[in-house]
Amino acid sequence: MLIKCIKLSKRVIVFCTITIVLLGSLSCAFLFLKKPSATSCNTLENNTTTLIENVTQNNISLEDNTNSIQEETKKEEKSYIKWFEFKVSYDVLVKTSQLDINSHTKNEDIKYNWIELISYLACKYGNDFKKFKQADLDSLTKRLKSGETMESITKDMKLYSYYYEGYDAVLSQFIGEYEIQKPTNVKASSTNKNTILNNTTTNSAITENEYPFTTVYGIKSFHPLAQNYSYSHYDDFGNSRSYGYKRLHFGNDLMGSIGTPVIAVESGIIEAVRLESVWWLESWYSQF
Protein backbone atom coordinates (compact mmCIF):
# COMPACT_ATOMS: atom_id res chain seq x y z
CA MET A 1 0.00 0.00 0.00
CA LEU A 2 2.83 2.37 0.90
CA ILE A 3 4.65 1.58 -2.34
CA LYS A 4 1.52 2.43 -4.39
CA CYS A 5 1.19 5.78 -2.63
CA ILE A 6 4.80 6.63 -3.39
CA LYS A 7 4.36 5.70 -7.00
CA LEU A 8 1.22 7.79 -7.18
CA SER A 9 3.02 10.76 -5.69
CA LYS A 10 5.77 10.56 -8.29
CA ARG A 11 3.14 10.56 -11.05
CA VAL A 12 1.49 13.62 -9.61
CA ILE A 13 4.83 15.41 -9.37
CA VAL A 14 5.67 14.60 -12.98
CA PHE A 15 2.22 15.74 -14.14
CA CYS A 16 2.46 19.02 -12.29
CA THR A 17 5.93 19.70 -13.64
CA ILE A 18 4.80 19.15 -17.22
CA THR A 19 1.78 21.35 -16.68
CA ILE A 20 3.88 24.22 -15.33
CA VAL A 21 6.30 23.99 -18.26
CA LEU A 22 3.44 24.08 -20.77
CA LEU A 23 1.80 27.06 -19.09
CA GLY A 24 5.09 28.95 -19.04
CA SER A 25 5.65 28.26 -22.73
CA LEU A 26 2.14 29.44 -23.62
CA SER A 27 2.62 32.66 -21.60
CA CYS A 28 5.88 33.46 -23.37
CA ALA A 29 4.30 32.81 -26.76
CA PHE A 30 1.34 35.05 -25.90
CA LEU A 31 3.58 37.93 -24.81
CA PHE A 32 5.70 37.54 -27.93
CA LEU A 33 2.69 37.61 -30.24
CA LYS A 34 1.16 40.68 -28.48
CA LYS A 35 4.37 42.70 -28.41
CA PRO A 36 3.59 46.20 -29.82
CA SER A 37 5.20 47.25 -33.03
CA ALA A 38 7.51 50.22 -33.40
CA THR A 39 4.70 52.21 -35.10
CA SER A 40 2.36 51.54 -32.20
CA CYS A 41 5.01 52.62 -29.73
CA ASN A 42 5.63 55.84 -31.66
CA THR A 43 1.88 56.58 -31.85
CA LEU A 44 1.50 56.00 -28.14
CA GLU A 45 4.49 58.21 -27.43
CA ASN A 46 3.14 60.97 -29.71
CA ASN A 47 -0.30 60.80 -28.07
CA THR A 48 1.28 61.04 -24.65
CA THR A 49 3.37 64.03 -25.72
CA THR A 50 0.31 65.78 -27.22
CA LEU A 51 -1.67 65.16 -24.05
CA ILE A 52 1.09 66.63 -21.92
CA GLU A 53 1.36 69.68 -24.21
CA ASN A 54 -2.42 70.25 -24.07
CA VAL A 55 -2.45 70.02 -20.29
CA THR A 56 0.50 72.41 -20.10
CA GLN A 57 -1.16 74.90 -22.47
CA ASN A 58 -4.42 74.72 -20.52
CA ASN A 59 -2.54 75.36 -17.29
CA ILE A 60 -0.75 78.34 -18.87
CA SER A 61 -4.05 79.68 -20.27
CA LEU A 62 -5.74 79.27 -16.90
CA GLU A 63 -2.85 81.03 -15.19
CA ASP A 64 -2.98 83.89 -17.73
CA ASN A 65 -6.74 84.28 -17.19
CA THR A 66 -6.25 84.30 -13.42
CA ASN A 67 -3.52 86.94 -13.70
CA SER A 68 -5.72 89.01 -16.04
CA ILE A 69 -8.64 88.90 -13.58
CA GLN A 70 -6.35 89.87 -10.72
CA GLU A 71 -4.93 92.79 -12.73
CA GLU A 72 -8.44 94.02 -13.65
CA THR A 73 -9.49 93.74 -10.00
CA LYS A 74 -6.45 95.78 -8.94
CA LYS A 75 -7.28 98.42 -11.55
CA GLU A 76 -10.87 98.63 -10.32
CA GLU A 77 -9.67 98.94 -6.74
CA LYS A 78 -7.28 101.72 -7.72
CA SER A 79 -9.93 103.69 -9.64
CA TYR A 80 -12.56 103.37 -6.93
CA ILE A 81 -13.07 106.59 -4.96
CA LYS A 82 -13.63 105.66 -1.33
CA TRP A 83 -14.13 109.21 -0.06
CA PHE A 84 -14.90 112.52 -1.68
CA GLU A 85 -15.59 115.91 -0.12
CA PHE A 86 -18.15 118.10 -1.86
CA LYS A 87 -16.81 121.54 -1.03
CA VAL A 88 -17.78 123.66 -4.01
CA SER A 89 -19.39 126.92 -2.88
CA TYR A 90 -22.86 128.15 -3.79
CA ASP A 91 -21.34 131.13 -5.59
CA VAL A 92 -19.25 128.89 -7.87
CA LEU A 93 -22.24 126.60 -8.51
CA VAL A 94 -24.33 129.57 -9.67
CA LYS A 95 -21.65 131.09 -11.90
CA THR A 96 -20.55 127.85 -13.58
CA SER A 97 -24.15 126.67 -14.11
CA GLN A 98 -25.05 129.99 -15.75
CA LEU A 99 -22.07 129.67 -18.09
CA ASP A 100 -23.14 126.13 -18.99
CA ILE A 101 -26.83 126.95 -19.57
CA ASN A 102 -26.26 130.21 -21.46
CA SER A 103 -23.71 128.64 -23.81
CA HIS A 104 -26.30 125.99 -24.79
CA THR A 105 -29.48 128.08 -24.89
CA LYS A 106 -27.77 130.86 -26.86
CA ASN A 107 -26.16 128.28 -29.15
CA GLU A 108 -22.67 129.66 -28.65
CA ASP A 109 -19.72 128.17 -30.50
CA ILE A 110 -18.13 126.96 -27.28
CA LYS A 111 -20.41 124.88 -25.04
CA TYR A 112 -19.29 124.90 -21.42
CA ASN A 113 -19.62 121.98 -19.03
CA TRP A 114 -20.07 123.30 -15.51
CA ILE A 115 -18.65 120.09 -13.95
CA GLU A 116 -15.45 120.52 -15.95
CA LEU A 117 -15.18 124.14 -14.84
CA ILE A 118 -15.73 123.18 -11.19
CA SER A 119 -13.21 120.32 -11.38
CA TYR A 120 -10.58 122.64 -12.85
CA LEU A 121 -11.09 125.15 -10.04
CA ALA A 122 -11.00 122.33 -7.46
CA CYS A 123 -7.56 121.33 -8.76
CA LYS A 124 -6.35 124.92 -8.72
CA TYR A 125 -7.49 125.54 -5.14
CA GLY A 126 -6.97 122.08 -3.67
CA ASN A 127 -10.79 121.83 -3.37
CA ASP A 128 -10.78 124.86 -1.07
CA PHE A 129 -13.26 127.18 -2.78
CA LYS A 130 -12.71 129.91 -0.22
CA LYS A 131 -9.77 130.79 -2.48
CA PHE A 132 -12.04 131.32 -5.48
CA LYS A 133 -11.33 134.34 -7.67
CA GLN A 134 -13.52 135.44 -10.55
CA ALA A 135 -10.39 136.16 -12.58
CA ASP A 136 -9.46 132.46 -12.55
CA LEU A 137 -12.84 131.44 -13.99
CA ASP A 138 -12.68 134.23 -16.59
CA SER A 139 -9.19 133.12 -17.59
CA LEU A 140 -10.36 129.52 -18.04
CA THR A 141 -13.34 130.46 -20.23
CA LYS A 142 -11.10 132.75 -22.29
CA ARG A 143 -8.70 129.89 -22.99
CA LEU A 144 -11.60 127.64 -24.01
CA LYS A 145 -12.97 130.32 -26.34
CA SER A 146 -9.52 130.69 -27.95
CA GLY A 147 -9.65 127.05 -29.05
CA GLU A 148 -7.93 125.18 -26.25
CA THR A 149 -9.63 122.01 -25.00
CA MET A 150 -10.21 121.03 -21.41
CA GLU A 151 -8.05 117.94 -22.01
CA SER A 152 -5.04 120.03 -23.03
CA ILE A 153 -5.58 122.54 -20.22
CA THR A 154 -5.79 119.87 -17.51
CA LYS A 155 -3.24 117.37 -18.87
CA ASP A 156 -0.74 118.22 -16.11
CA MET A 157 -3.35 118.30 -13.33
CA LYS A 158 -2.97 114.91 -11.65
CA LEU A 159 -6.14 115.20 -9.57
CA TYR A 160 -8.42 116.55 -12.30
CA SER A 161 -9.95 113.14 -13.11
CA TYR A 162 -10.47 112.51 -9.38
CA TYR A 163 -12.35 115.78 -8.84
CA TYR A 164 -14.29 115.35 -12.08
CA GLU A 165 -15.45 111.86 -11.12
CA GLY A 166 -16.48 113.03 -7.67
CA TYR A 167 -18.43 116.13 -8.75
CA ASP A 168 -19.88 114.35 -11.77
CA ALA A 169 -21.33 111.67 -9.49
CA VAL A 170 -23.32 114.37 -7.69
CA LEU A 171 -24.09 116.94 -10.38
CA SER A 172 -24.32 115.01 -13.66
CA GLN A 173 -28.15 114.94 -13.68
CA PHE A 174 -28.73 118.54 -12.54
CA ILE A 175 -28.32 120.27 -15.91
CA GLY A 176 -29.17 119.01 -19.36
CA GLU A 177 -31.96 118.53 -21.87
CA TYR A 178 -35.48 117.64 -20.78
CA GLU A 179 -39.01 117.89 -22.13
CA ILE A 180 -41.69 120.13 -20.67
CA GLN A 181 -45.19 121.12 -21.72
CA LYS A 182 -45.48 124.77 -22.68
CA PRO A 183 -48.57 126.67 -23.87
CA THR A 184 -48.72 127.61 -27.54
CA ASN A 185 -50.08 131.09 -26.72
CA VAL A 186 -50.54 133.44 -23.80
CA LYS A 187 -54.33 133.03 -23.67
CA ALA A 188 -54.05 129.27 -23.26
CA SER A 189 -51.50 129.81 -20.52
CA SER A 190 -53.65 132.23 -18.50
CA THR A 191 -56.91 130.33 -19.06
CA ASN A 192 -55.79 126.80 -18.32
CA LYS A 193 -53.03 127.36 -15.73
CA ASN A 194 -55.36 127.16 -12.73
CA THR A 195 -57.24 124.26 -14.32
CA ILE A 196 -54.08 122.18 -14.59
CA LEU A 197 -52.91 122.97 -11.06
CA ASN A 198 -56.23 122.74 -9.19
CA ASN A 199 -58.55 120.46 -11.15
CA THR A 200 -56.97 117.14 -12.03
CA THR A 201 -60.27 115.73 -13.33
CA THR A 202 -60.16 118.02 -16.37
CA ASN A 203 -56.53 117.43 -17.25
CA SER A 204 -57.55 115.06 -20.00
CA ALA A 205 -59.27 117.97 -21.70
CA ILE A 206 -55.97 119.81 -22.03
CA THR A 207 -54.66 118.53 -25.35
CA GLU A 208 -51.08 118.40 -26.52
CA ASN A 209 -52.00 120.95 -29.18
CA GLU A 210 -52.48 123.53 -26.43
CA TYR A 211 -49.55 122.31 -24.33
CA PRO A 212 -47.09 120.50 -26.61
CA PHE A 213 -43.92 118.95 -25.22
CA THR A 214 -40.87 121.09 -25.92
CA THR A 215 -37.22 120.12 -25.51
CA VAL A 216 -35.34 122.67 -23.42
CA TYR A 217 -31.90 122.90 -21.83
CA GLY A 218 -31.41 123.96 -18.25
CA ILE A 219 -31.73 122.87 -14.64
CA LYS A 220 -33.75 119.65 -14.54
CA SER A 221 -33.58 118.81 -10.83
CA PHE A 222 -36.53 119.60 -8.60
CA HIS A 223 -36.98 120.45 -4.95
CA PRO A 224 -38.44 117.37 -3.17
CA LEU A 225 -41.03 119.40 -1.22
CA ALA A 226 -44.03 121.09 -2.79
CA GLN A 227 -43.90 124.85 -3.34
CA ASN A 228 -45.03 127.20 -0.56
CA TYR A 229 -44.72 124.56 2.19
CA SER A 230 -42.35 125.47 5.01
CA TYR A 231 -39.52 123.28 6.26
CA SER A 232 -36.45 123.54 8.46
CA HIS A 233 -32.98 122.74 7.20
CA TYR A 234 -29.32 122.90 8.16
CA ASP A 235 -26.10 121.40 6.81
CA ASP A 236 -26.02 118.02 8.61
CA PHE A 237 -24.07 116.11 5.98
CA GLY A 238 -21.27 114.13 7.66
CA ASN A 239 -22.65 114.54 11.19
CA SER A 240 -22.41 111.65 13.64
CA ARG A 241 -25.41 109.32 13.88
CA SER A 242 -26.05 106.74 16.63
CA TYR A 243 -29.62 105.53 15.91
CA GLY A 244 -29.31 101.83 15.12
CA TYR A 245 -25.52 101.96 14.98
CA LYS A 246 -22.76 104.57 15.04
CA ARG A 247 -22.05 106.06 11.64
CA LEU A 248 -21.70 109.26 9.61
CA HIS A 249 -24.77 110.81 8.04
CA PHE A 250 -24.32 110.78 4.24
CA GLY A 251 -27.40 112.84 3.54
CA ASN A 252 -29.14 116.13 4.12
CA ASP A 253 -32.44 116.26 6.00
CA LEU A 254 -35.32 118.61 5.20
CA MET A 255 -37.76 118.73 8.12
CA GLY A 256 -41.21 119.42 6.68
CA SER A 257 -44.56 119.89 8.37
CA ILE A 258 -47.13 117.09 8.67
CA GLY A 259 -49.13 116.85 5.45
CA THR A 260 -46.45 118.38 3.23
CA PRO A 261 -46.64 116.89 -0.29
CA VAL A 262 -43.37 115.20 -1.23
CA ILE A 263 -42.25 114.86 -4.85
CA ALA A 264 -41.17 111.30 -5.65
CA VAL A 265 -37.64 110.83 -6.95
CA GLU A 266 -38.96 108.25 -9.44
CA SER A 267 -42.30 107.17 -10.88
CA GLY A 268 -43.87 104.22 -9.09
CA ILE A 269 -46.63 102.86 -6.87
CA ILE A 270 -46.35 102.94 -3.06
CA GLU A 271 -46.63 99.38 -1.72
CA ALA A 272 -45.76 99.78 1.97
CA VAL A 273 -45.42 102.56 4.53
CA ARG A 274 -43.76 102.46 7.96
CA LEU A 275 -43.58 105.10 10.65
CA GLU A 276 -40.01 104.60 11.87
CA SER A 277 -40.20 107.30 14.54
CA VAL A 278 -41.66 110.74 15.13
CA TRP A 279 -38.94 112.11 12.85
CA TRP A 280 -39.42 110.36 9.55
CA LEU A 281 -41.69 108.18 7.47
CA GLU A 282 -40.33 105.50 5.18
CA SER A 283 -42.13 104.14 2.15
CA TRP A 284 -41.39 101.45 -0.41
CA TYR A 285 -42.65 101.53 -3.95
CA SER A 286 -42.21 99.59 -7.13
CA GLN A 287 -41.09 101.24 -10.35
CA PHE A 288 -43.33 101.33 -13.40
Distance separating the two termini: 111 Å
**Structural class of the secondary elements?**
alpha+beta
Report Rg. Answer: 42 Å
Unreliable stretches covering 5 or more consecutive residues: 1-8, 199-205
* Number of E strands: 8
Topology:
Elements: H1 2-33, H2 38-79, H3 90-105, H4 114-125, H5 134-145, H6 150-153, H7 160-171, E1 175-181, H8 186-198, E2 213-219, E3 231-233, E4 240-241, E5 247-248, E6 254-256, E7 268-275, E8 281-287
What can you see in these coordinates?
With 288 residues, the protein is α+β, with helices and mostly antiparallel strands. Among the domains are: 90-172, no CATH class; 178-219, no CATH class; 231-287, no CATH class. The chain contains 8 helices and 8 strands; from the N terminus they run αααααααβαβββββββ. The chain has helices spanning 2-33, 38-79, 90-105, 114-125, 134-145, 150-153, 160-171, 186-198; strands at 175-181, 213-219, 231-233, 240-241, 247-248, 254-256, 268-275, 281-287. The protein has a two-stranded antiparallel ribbon. A two-stranded antiparallel ribbon has the order 3-6. A two-stranded antiparallel sheet has the order 4-5. The longest helix is centred in the N-terminal third of the chain and has 42 residues, at 38-79. The chain starts with a helix and ends with a strand. The relative contact order is 0.06. Mean pLDDT is 76; it is low at 1-8 and 199-205.
